[in-house]
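Bug #2210: token dump truncated for Valine--tRNA ligase?
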Amino acid sequence: MIEKNYQPADIEARMSVVWEDSLAFKAGRPDRRDAVPFTIVIPPPNVTGSLHMGHALNNTLQDILCRFERMRGRDVLWQPGTDHAGIATQMVVERQLTERKQPGRREMGREKFLERVWQWKAESGDTIINQLKRLGASCDWSRERFTMDEGLSKAVVKVFVELHRDGLIYKDKRLVNWDTKLLTAISDLEVQQTEVKGHLWYLRYPIEGRTFSPEDPSSFIVVATTRPETMLGDTGVAVHPEDERYLKLVGKNVILPLVGRKIAIVADDYSDPEKGSGAVKITPAHDFNDFEVGNRHGLARISVIDREGCLDLVDNEDYLRDLPEGTAQFAEEFHKVDRFVARKRIVERLESFGFIERIEPHTHMVPHGDRSNSVIEPYLTDQWYVDAKTLAKPAIAAVRSGETNFVPKNWEKTYFEWMENIQPWCISRQLWWGHQIPAWYGPDGKVFVAETEEEAVSHALGYYVEQEVITAEQGREMALDRNKREGFITRDEDVLDTWFSSALWPFSTLGWPADAPEVQRYYPTNALVTGFDIIFFWVARMMMMGLHFMKEVPFSTVYIHALVRDEKGAKMSKSKGNVIDPLNLIDEYGADALRFTLAAMAAQGRDIKLATSRVEGYRNFATKLWNASRFAEMNHCAVPDGFEPAKVKETLNRWIAHESAHTTREVTEAIEAYRFNDAAGAIYRFVWNVYCDWYVELAKPVLLGPDSPAKDETRAMVAWARDEILKLLHPFMPFITEELWEVTAKRDGLLALAQWPLKPAEPTPEQLAMLAAAAGPTDPLVSPMLIMPIFDHADFTDPAAEAEIGWVIDLVTQIRSVRAEMNIPPATLTALVLVGASTETSERAPRWAEIVKRMARLSDISFADRAPDGAVQLLVRGEVAALPLKGVIDVAAERARLDKEIGKADADIKRAEAKLANEKFVANAAEEVVEEEREKREAALARKAKLLEALERLKQAS
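Reproduced locally. Full output below:
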């Protein structure tokens, strides 16, 4: 028995237990042993994280695909897991230690600190997983993985060692994003560009051989900088090779102010003749662009800022080299001074010597660490790198050839731009939490990379015996006694970037490098659902690693979803106070309502403007379905054994079968094409408009009438159509549909494992042969994605039933629309005249007269050859229907009202267009404000169009 009121919280808790106890989501179920697999790997959320709206969207879309394919009979593996999140997790634990006034990381030592992190993970690491379960994610939770699981750690070590052996991992001194607070390199994704109001300092650099005078422009070159403190590390000045002002100076030197070092003037396209003086200072050790310019011209790299963000000048061999006499005192004065304090002092010093031409206010973007919030320093340091350029070539080719496709396709351009301009990938991090780099150093710094310490020791001892650094006897003793080799060989303290381990996710989670059967069955995966911001950081790297180690792309399709913004289109942020918590929405409206909202708004390439009112609206949609199901149950609607909907006789029932088949095709094809919003829209229209508003209403006279074959058939069909709805809606709203299925469908088994209404056709032998050939002779399975487009669309249709019931619906709808436009009170009944009716209409009208009169508030339906005077004429499926309104409405008053409303719409249009025509407004206003004005204009234009249509109809009644 269906409860009177729909209570999402009760249903969600109960259904979660039912699914878990029945192992509904387990991959490799015995009944699916011979089924074609369908695999998705979850983008592993940080173990420190909690569910945010991006997670909710991403996982809702993945779940729709998984539930859809599971119902189509596929052996679905949705692989769950979490990422160890190096910096984030280490910060969480360090903060916890501080709050509890316990010894810090350094005081504890590495081993004890890592024990503490694992303890934290055991206590708090499942938060995000439990929240995903609340959302309804149908992962195979028995296979949950963690990027630092033993098996995944083995995969990471093997990949590192093999890439190093192949020359694709190496150590190099390059610039990195350096966090001076966390004291580690960080990835570009962990850098936030923040707008800062600063200054632009124009500095005079004296030309060698000329007497410097601030009043003589020929004695110096002017360069502009936002970072005067880095000028101490300048090793060149660049001018454009076609800038005639400087052609004669290229190859000469300037004298670095305050320091006195001679630095070269070089010609390089990096300098923009249109900006400032056209000359730029080059500091290769403190700017990423300058680093590249320096490489092109062989300029020295002089690092003058240390790990903590302080000037580092004393004992700095690079800085002190080639300095004129008398600068050592300057080095002492500024040594270990914070970079921003040093900036102020250096500007004062430059000003006192006449080296500053002018200072201008300057607003610019400054990189900050997303976790430390400190200004990021481009820092020259030794790090481990991956030769991404080499690995990227097959990954680029795979997308160009169509082995992997992006949806929407325009994201391929972004992928290619990144991949074709790829730089070496810095994979080392100066942290303790993470996969420690499997490299050991000998006493002379020689590196030994190996999968285990024992292997590294063996290589090292063999090498040093051969080099006669130690004797063979010493080597044997060290090999046998760990204490005797203490300090002789030491492990690299750094850990790997978390993106390194997550790059292996599609195959490491399946058991690789072990010869696991899951690797053979579930790799490559089918689809990846992710956000655009990690196409490079994660998607591209999975492509590179998958192709290198598995010799196949890791996924056939990459679906890129957009951002979830607030209802005005602004990006959600804590600082703006506009963050919407998905868990709060689930608490208030239910997970189904939130899921359906996100799916319904997930148009390809368009950001989602999320309003709480939309979620509330879809909760009402769930309530509508609940009440319709209760109505069916109260009227004893049930599907009898052996019932065949294709054999029903009543026109109304054949119509709902026709509409159900049409909707099934729409939903199926839309999900296949990753058009989630179209799929959600199709099922919404079918449930609310077709089934509830029309079918159930039109069926009521039969259901409430005397017993008859027609009543029996209608009861069966009401229940059958409801069950089809539950199937189609299940991927989007799994909780309510599973509950209603259990209570009303009275079938054996779960809805989650029921058959989708439109199942894939069995491929013919010819198709199988074609697919096998396309897949290649070594593939153990035919690619599931190749089978997907082959469907049997020979399902039920009845054009005659659709024509008859469609006529009834269109007629009632148009009459209701006119009544609303003309402000006709509900109690006022109007007549209807069918003009020049065809034979079909003449036969239909009497059959449906009572229902049409009741639903359209009509007093009478008659036939005539021409429309009466003063009647509003409607065109219904090519035929004219007339509503005589003379004497029913005050035409003059109604016209005045419409004119007034049109005037208001015109004013709204004019106001919005004036703002949008203002270039200053469009350029300076927030993106969401401009978009809001565009929406106001479009709404006003649409409102005016409807009012003009109503005014035109009113003229007919005059």
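Output looks complete on our side. The CA atoms of residues 916 and 922 lie 6 Å apart. Marking as cannot-reproduce; reopen if the truncation happens again.
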